[in-house]
Amino acid sequence: MPAPKYRRVLGIDKGVLLQYATLAFLALFVIAPIAPILYQSFIDRPLYETGKIFTIDNFVKLFTEAGFGQVIVNTVLLAVLTTVLTLVFAVPMAVLVVRTKLPFARVLAGSMQWPFYISSLILGFGWITMYGPAGFISVAVRNLLGFVPWNLYSLPGMALTEAVALAPIAYVFCANVLRQADPALESAARVCGAKPLRILRTIVVPMLRPPIVYATILTFTSSIESLSVPLLYGARTDIRVFSTFLYSNGLESVQPDYGVLGAASMIILVVTIGLVFLQARVLKKAQRFVSVRGKASRPRRLELGWVKWVGAILVTAYVVLGAAIPIFGLVFRSFTLVFTPMQNPFRTVTLENYSRIFMFDDYTRSITNSIIVAAVGAVVVSLIALIAVVVARRSTFRFRRAVEYLAFAPQAIPGIIVGIGFFWTFALLPSSGPFSLIAKGTLIAVIIVFGFGVVPTAFSSIASSITQIGSELDNAARTSGADWLGAFVRILWKLLIPAFVGAMILTFVAMLKAYASALFVASANSEVIGTTMLVLWGEGETGSVAALATLQIVITAAVVGIASRFMKGHANA
Asked: Which helix (H) or strand (E) holds 341?
């Protein structure tokens, strides 16, 4: 095939320019929050002051500070408990829903993903409303048994709430693998006389090792960075973990010790990056578990007899007790003046909580800001991800692997660390000129920190679709004289529109419910729903918190509903 004649800009091919620009942008994007943290952790004063001296005293002070050892222990215990509970929920439910004749399987499969669409912050509010010491369910159980057999304000209580929020992600990983796997091995075992339970134990579950490993690492790192549930629960019983340690020593401190803050941030960053590398090594031989071949047939669901009803009850219990009841309680709280088991809540039904939200500009501005940040961020991040995917997967660029690694790098950096890193980055930027547009406290700054965290999501969404588009289309375009950029604009772009829209939906939902990284870069004029809810909760305005949470749920449900109708029939989205 003759080499195409590329159009050039200043003697350089436009496609090559785009490729190097993509690499440089992603590299700068990833380095921006990391470099200031690394620098701050080894100097004796805030990095924006003069006369800095390099030192390791910040780490020494951190590990000799009273109570920091307990912070490490609490963080590890929370992460381990959350990971175990998440897998206990997700793996059996994925197997039951996808590979067995489970009653109401389609309904249960859809409802299993409900917690994904709401933030753990909202879920935590809902759990406190229903399962807290004064919650409706807790009071009913106390009246029945004389005591409450659980303590929500404890490490197991935190882990259980986090596990309910994270289980849908692990469930999707496992369910996708089970749907794509060739059932030939199961058929062979069935011919040899194996019973359904044995087939599940010896064939189906072992195939799930790669997604289980991936879900384990992701859940563990998510537990380390989680702020909402430890902040809501732990503040009442003085249980501190890494995330709340950073929050209290950063935002809540009158005189923050930036050196200690940087040192603690570096520890979390090193741990999470190390876990991601460990995941890569563990999954290096994942090809041993591949069972998707060219002539895969439709899986035949296994019949478990009476066991299927037990499975259906367990999945229903997860959905109802874990998500439906807490969310119902939170929504109902938004329509009452007083929400307590000691008084009939129907006597105080009101719209005053919503009136208060729309009466104060700060509250309505947070809703508007959230929608703007999510909408603009979804478009921008999806465009960046689309270009990065095409460069990484459909070009001959010599650094295309580096582009892919950089696109996935943000998943190894906890959200709260991203917020701290960009806080220092924005502090170093000039306060005048074009840089003032992205200074700390602007909506653009919030879009940047939220967008950083969802780039891997958008990249994965589009990358999975581009692999289904044959490279012969690119080759045909090149044969006709189109360069790499022309083949993308004229052919690939049109085929990837459904995947692009799907990526925008995912990033919109993720950015709408995000809040942790914004705590360090938002101002009074750039608050989002999540940060406003935290402030209101601290002031005891639980009715306003419930109203804001309900509005966020409604917005998310509307977007997901509209998107589902649009995506119907687009299998490659």
From this structure: none
CA 450 to CA 440: how far, in whole Å? 13
How many Cβ atoms sit within 10 Å of the Cβ of residue 502? 23
Q: What is the CATH number of domain 70-237+264-293+307-347?
A: 1.10.3720.10
The whole-number pLDDT of residue 375 equals 93
Return the structure tokens found at 103: 């009653």
The single-letter code of the amino acid at 514 is A
9, containing H or E segment: strand 8-9
Residue ranges of the chain whose pLDDT lies below 50:
1, 3-4, 6, 286-296, 571-573
Residues 6+ apart with CB under 8 A from 307: 197
Q: Is 423 exposed, middle or buried (0-12, 13-18, 19+ CB in 10 A)?
A: buried
Query: Residue 417's closest CA among 219, 559, 273, 213?
Result: 273
Kindly write down the DSSP assignment for every residue of 140-174, as one continuous string.
HHHHHHSS-S--SSSHHHHHHHHHHHHHHHHHHHH
Res 262: pLDDT? 85
Q: What are the backbone dihedrals phi and psi of residue 202, each rounded to the nearest 5 degrees, phi first?
A: -100, -20
Sign (positive/negative) of CA torsion 464, 279, 206, 309?
Answer: negative
pTM of the model: 0.81
Q: Give the H/E segment covering residue 516.
A: none
CB atoms within 10 A of CB 562: 11
Task: Report the chain's C-alpha Rg in angstroms.
Answer: 25
Q: Which residues of 124-162 are buried (b: 16+ CB within 10 A; e: fewer)?
A: bbbbbbbbbeebbbbbebeeeeeebeeebbebebbbbbb
Q: How far is CA 182 from CA 210, 296, 352, 357, 468, in A?
A: 16, 5, 56, 53, 18
pLDDT of residue 290: 44
Give the pair of three-digit tokens for residue 500. 């692009």
Cα 530 to Cα 512: distance, rounded to the nearest angstrom: 9
Give strand ranges (E) for 224-292.
none
d(CA 135, CA 141): 10
Query: Rounded to an integer, what distance in angstroms lies between the CA atom of residue 140 and that of residue 131?
Result: 10
